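Predict structure. Chain length: 699.
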Amino acid sequence: MPIRTTSLVESTSTAPRTAAPARRTVVSNGADQDGFRYDIQAVRAIAVVAVLLYHLWPKRLPGGFIGVDVFFVVSGFLITSHIIRGLGRGAPGRFLVDFYARRIRRLAPAAVTVLIAVLAGTIVFRPLSAWQDSIGNILASTFFVENWHLAEQSVDYLAADATPSAVQHYWSLSVEEQFYIVWPLLFIVLAALRLRRRGLVIAISIALGASLAFALIATFVTPEAAYFLTPARAWQLASGALISFFTISSERARRALPWTGVALIAAGALMITGATPYPGVTAIIPTLGACLILLGGPNPPKSSFDRVVRTKPVQFLGDISYSLYLWHWPLIVFIPIVIGHSLKWPEKLVILIASVFLGWLSYRFIETPFRSRRFNSKTIQTFVAGTVALLVVVVPSAAASAHAESQIQASVAAMQNAKESPNRCDAGGSMLADCADDHTVTPSVAAAAAEDKPRPWLDRCINGLEDSSTVVCDYGDPSGAKTVLLWGDSHAAAWGPALDEAGKQDGFRAVVATRHGCPSTLTAPIATVGRDIAPSEREACAERNGWVAKELVPKADLVVLANMTTNYHFDVDLSEAFGDSVRTVRDAGVPVALLEDVPLTGDDEGHRVNGPECLATGDACTNSSSRALNDRLDKALTEAGLDDEYSFIRTHGAFCTADECYFAAGGASVYFDASHLSDTYSASLGPWIAESLTDLLPR
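Prediction complete.
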């Protein structure tokens, strides 16, 4: 297969077709006679269709998210081609200014328009409790750091319950923009070193290899965060960059490579799933596929691939791919909020059509005018306009954030006053005392509830997902003669305020030993309902629990196990996983109690409802008792013959009637997110917990 490399200053005709100068993708490598690469528009069309179908029908196209990988390859290919041409024409300083001005004209108008629309949608349709998170994502997207923002959230266990951001898809745009900042500077340095094409290819290959190695390691260590990290994605952009240095003269190869590339992309979209560690080794499949398509172009005239890519539908989707990508996700996020239920087939078809229509409008009236010849020479005006565009997003976002914060803080202050002067019908007392209650709260109280995290979060004594730690929370009466050990995951931590109040009331010390995503089992779970658990996280969980069993259990007078049992999958039976913990505690001569799981806000397959956001609508949010309650662990241990080894504390009377489990009671939100008790509600159950433990503590 004859392959030719191009030099840094080598170029061919770059004149776009006069029929449509604004929309054409022109490159210096392997262009058609009119300077246009039809196959690149086809690759963009493949990428955006894959992403769109995945977001609407994830079970039908489980790996459609690999469309983003394809976009990365195309971007690396095109940007490197532009850099090669630009550095061959003028001084590096002038080239840089023009390069960044072109990026602003190309990307900012549509991106800013969508951000403003999302901000308006947030204010109109989202509850006050969701404003801060949404605005944080909008600002991160505005400054092209959304990928780092999401990477940080991905290692926050609580973020798993958060409503998706309407701009989270900007993470890929952020990766590309960060690449665009660094890549031309690298080429300027390489040009100053007078490297010829072989040196450039070697330099890019080294960068590609280093990034790929980082991606493989990061995917193994922190798979959730690795997906968004720029160093773990740079190799895909570098792959496209490397391809821009090569052309293929064999017509037979040029006919075969594009279809091979399409087959690889299709295989990735159909076979890779969300459970696959990514971007690990499997990310090579779609990346290689995109590279093969680009390497095979321009396609021989009248070849089968050439006839397909030149069709109007393919070229149309390629033209609007950027705007289509920007608009589709906000529609997917906002429409269920507006209509009040999850998307069904009719709504998904409407979103599909609306996304294409908005993509075309945005391309025709926002993208194209700013890329026309009339704007190309106005460099200074471009930077001024870019600054103004930033302010148009930042100023109203800051104002909305300040308004939300003031409302939330006022409700937080009122909530604190209520905590200090409780009555029997406040919060959980309302359910236990059978008080009259409409089970609603005001929108501002709902917003404050999202900030009402239990004390272990505020005291930073709950362990995160990182390395194992020996930090615990010390609550209750510090001089108490008895010690109660609360051992479990973050749901156990949410019971911390109740144990604190109970210990102060009955004079016992409460030690809360909890870890996010790590139930009180000596065998670590392999997955939750929403994700696979990385080996490093499993190891840290097992190490932590081993330490608790060895160091804390023997010093306790009573051990209480509390977990969100339905959240975990083990490679052993449920009774074996938790039975080992029960036996370990009993072998230490310590009584053990199981605290019934907090009622679910959805089902046991991970479909949950954010409590404060639901309550912000003013409704009495509920879940049926049959759906919300689960005693599978008690049943499993009973069937295993361990029912005489522990006491079972039923908790659902503090949340549910015979038919319904409530998200609010006594003027307080039960949850601060989609599954964890709020500090207010947990603390209100302190007297009841004290009473429940009275007969279990040795005298």
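Summary: Residues 379-420 form the longest helix (42 residues).
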